[in-house]
From TrEMBL:
InterPro entries in UniProt: ADH-like_C, ADH-like_N, ADH_Zn_CS, CAD-like, ER, GroES-like_sf, NAD(P)-bd_dom_sf
Gene3D superfamilies given in the database record: Medium-chain alcohol dehydrogenases, catalytic domain (3.90.180.10), NAD(P)-binding Rossmann-like Domain (3.40.50.720)
Coiled coil: none
Protein name: alcohol dehydrogenase (NADP(+))
Pfam families xrefs: ADH_N, ADH_zinc_N
Co-factor(s): Zn(2+)
UniProt keyword annotations, A-Z: Metal-binding, Oxidoreductase, Zinc
A GO term for molecular function: zinc ion binding
Domain Enoyl reductase (ER): 9-342
CDD domains listed in its UniProt record: CAD1 (cd05283)
Length: 347
């Protein structure tokens, strides 16, 4: 029989989230049942709950930064055992057969990866996410959380961590490279920590200097305010890589001017409206204007191991479930340093 678990759900685009109950499927031969301990609040959760990226399938339980403990495994599971510390990120399944899945890039499954929430599983049922007590996930989409990471600070790594690790790794952040991070929020603070650990020279580009002390503490070598026009002239042509973590409309031509020849500006933020960019800003200097998604499961595990090795966790504010709606308003107002994490024992 399916298991009933407590959760918090959005029931419309305009109503506050509220306590809810959902069904979790029986554990199949290749499934792992997880007692969720912590769930991070990602801005994607807010966009989905409020139907800002298209209509949500209500009622929807969001949350794709999940950390917990294995409570049961299927008869064919080989990677995990009861008691293991594990995480689940933005996807819970894929076709497993296409060229991208076979390459370990399940996020680009040609048949469409199955999202942790607001998606439809292979059983035809809607997927429900981490703002809940428990979840059942096929073994191949579960990651091991190394012992060196506490579960509360590890939860946001399953989205914010991999979203920033993947482009930094792909574009070669490391010793001798100058990396800039636009924005010091949930994504940006992880980008700074990871780029610093990779050995790059790290600069934060933020609207103001109000978070400068934090940025330097987290590993930035330099911190500049983009509201100061002198910043763009002083830093012109300096960076090998710029990771843009904000979802706001920016003057991308100005930011492209900060790149060195053949440098790359990689976007992980998702503004709702189309952007403007002059092609001269790209062609001049043979520069790259790119985007980056999450990583595959293999790269996500690599990221978790890297973070454990370097003592990297998210900067978190742990909250009870009753404060989810308040936390959403604070995220929208950029009033969090730097990730809210729900203690699911409070559901």
């Amino acid at each position: 029989m399916p298991t009933t678990v407590k959760a918090y759900a959005a029931t419309s685009a305009t109503e506050p989230q509220k306590p809810f109950e959902i069904q979790r499927r029986d554990v199949g031969p290749k499934d792992v049942a997880i007692d969720i301990k912590f769930a991070g609040i990602c801005h994607s959760d807010i966009h989905t709950a409020r139907s800002e990226w298209g209509p949500a399938n209500y009622p929807v339980v969001v949350g794709h930064e999940i950390a917990g403990v294995v409570t049961e495994v299927g008869s064919e599971v080989t990677k995990y055992a009861v008691g293991d510390r594990v995480g689940v990120g933005c996807m819970v399944d894929s076709c497993g057969e296409c060229v991208n899945c076979e390459a370990g890039e399940e996020q680009f499954c040609l048949k469409g990866m199955i999202g942790t929430y607001n998606s439809v599983g292979k059983d035809g049922e809607p997927t429900q996410g981490g703002y809940s007590q428990a979840i059942v996930v096929t073994e191949g989409f579960v990651c091991r959380i190394p012992d060196g990471l506490e579960l509360d600070v590890a939860a946001p790594l399953l989205c914010a961590g991999i979203t920033t690790y993947s482009p930094l790794r792909h574009w070669g952040a490391g010793p001798g490279k100058k990396v800039a991070v636009i924005g010091l929020g949930g994504l940006g603070h992880m980008a700074v920590k990871i780029a610093h650990a990779m050995g790059a020279e790290v600069t934060v580009l933020s609207q103001s200097l109000k978070k400068q002390e934090d940025g330097l503490r987290l590993g930035a070598d330099h911190y500049h305010a983009t509201s100061d026009e002198d910043t763009f002239s002083a830093l012109r042509g300096q960076f090998d890589l710029i990771v843009n973590t904000v979802s706001a409309q920016l003057d991308f031509d100005k930011y492209m001017s900060l790149l060195a020849v053949r440098g790359a500006l990689v976007n992980v933020g998702l503004p709702e409206d189309p952007i403007s960019l002059r092609m001269f800003s790209v062609v001049g200097g043979s520069k790259n204007f790119a985007g980056s998604n999450i990583g595959g499961i293999r790269e996500t595990q690599e990221m978790l191991d890297f973070c454990a090795e370097h003592g990297i966790g998210a900067e978190v504010e742990v909250i009870p479930a009753e404060k989810i709606n308040e936390a959403y308003e604070r995220v929208v107002a950029s009033d969090v340093r730097y990730r809210f994490v729900i203690d699911t024992a409070t559901l």
